[in-house]
Hints:
- The protein has helices at about 5-10, 50-65, 180-190, 240-260, 265-280, 280-295, 300-305, 315-325, 330-345, 350-370, 380-410, and strands spanning about 1-5, 20-30, 40-50, 75-80, 85-90, 95-100, 105, 135-145, 155, 160-165, 170-180, 195-210, 220, 225.
- The strands form 3 sheets. Strands 1-3-2-9-10-11-8-12 form an 8-stranded mixed sheet. A 3-stranded antiparallel sheet has the order 4-5-6, with no helix packed on it. Strands 7-14-13 form a 3-stranded mixed sheet.
- It is globular, with a radius of gyration of 22 Å.
- Strand 5 (about 85-90) and strand 6 form a beta hairpin.
- The chain contains 11 helices and 14 strands.
- The protein has about 400 residues and is α+β, with helices and mostly antiparallel strands.
- It folds into 3 domains: about 1-55 and about 130-210, D-Amino Acid Oxidase, Chain A, domain 2, CATH 3.30.9; about 70-130 and about 210-280, 3-Layer(bba) Sandwich (FAD/NAD(P)-binding domain); about 285-370 and about 395-410, no CATH class.
- Helix 6 runs antiparallel to helix 10 (about 350-370), helix 6 (about 280-295) runs parallel beside helix 11 (about 380-410) and helix 10 runs antiparallel to helix 11 (about 380-410).
Amino acid sequence: PFHMEETAFEKFGIPLPGGDELLHRLETITMWPPSAGRGVQARLVTLDMDKPAFMRRLISYARAAGAEVLEETEFTGLLMERGYPVGVRARGPQGEIEARCRLVVDASGIGGAVRTSLPASPWFENDPLDDLDTLVVYMESWGDVKGEVNPGVNSYLHFQGWYAPSYGDQIIVGVGMPASVEGARKRQQAFAATLPFTGEARKSTTGRVPYRRPPFSLVENGLMVVGDAAFMNKPFSGEGVSSAFTACAIAAEVATDALSRDDLTRESLWPYNQRYFRDQGAKFAFLTAAMPAVASLSPPEIDFLFSLPGIITEEGTRALNLEYELKSDAASVTKSLPALLKGIAARKLQPESVAGIAKLGAIAGALKKLYATYPEHPADFGAWVKKARPLWERADRARHDYFRRLLREWA
């Protein structure tokens, strides 16, 4: 199963699911401290869905619109003429094929099969995804559940863990873990041991999601990149469907205009870059850089933050999940400042943690501001990258240090 916010269906003009496609309609999300003390619950209507059924429905829409869908078919290379992609080579049950087109869109998933096959240029990155820039997701579906199960989606920052309803009366219990499948299994077992219920594992699933910045540009002559191939997952949860739909909606509008003018140059496709990165891309840049500073806090430190009014709130939880923003009530935060400062003095929040939050918070803020001024034209791209790259190098170094620490902890 997978989750999508109910509001996303209206936003993207997709009919709501029904029948076997819809498993559960979840009304709330609860953020829990490591000590299993009082959580913070927010109303957030989330649809728990069968992903294969959802994909079949989307494919049926595409076919009805005239698309030809080739199943069990593998991309093997680009067709190039005068430096432009003019189609793809593929292999499937029908043998070797060539499909010619005016515009290639790479929606091939985390491997970025098309993007990584294109030559690099000053305007385009083709480097493959490094293992240390991924999160392994390990989930188990539990049956015969006994104990206290909170309704809705339940999220645990310390383990990057969650539980929620699965098929029927089963519960899915999962975690994220950098790079290591075995480490993810061990971490999931440790997380499961902290939950107020037990169950019998009926099925397990493992997958990977990207956790890094997108390429600085998502277009090249005759090419656009979307979804996991462009690393568009939500930095706070790893989910990527609705966030990718946001990019796809922009890309579709830009592509329609470019095709109508028969101009598939980098310059013509560039508005996709500008519109995506100045909005959702800027928010995700902030969160991608800042989240490791918070996720790396120790359990007692996270418990301390949960104890402070105005820090982790219902409104903030909704804003993070729906608007991709970190928001808090200024008056409540002001009231919590004496307790926060007292806690820092008492080392309930360690000095190195405070320093890490301050450092990555500053980098994240600078990145968000920079992405909000993403260049309007490729001519200004090089100067912009020269500002962005050193900020990302600092943020990536901190994130990789945290990921390596987790790999040692769960080896």
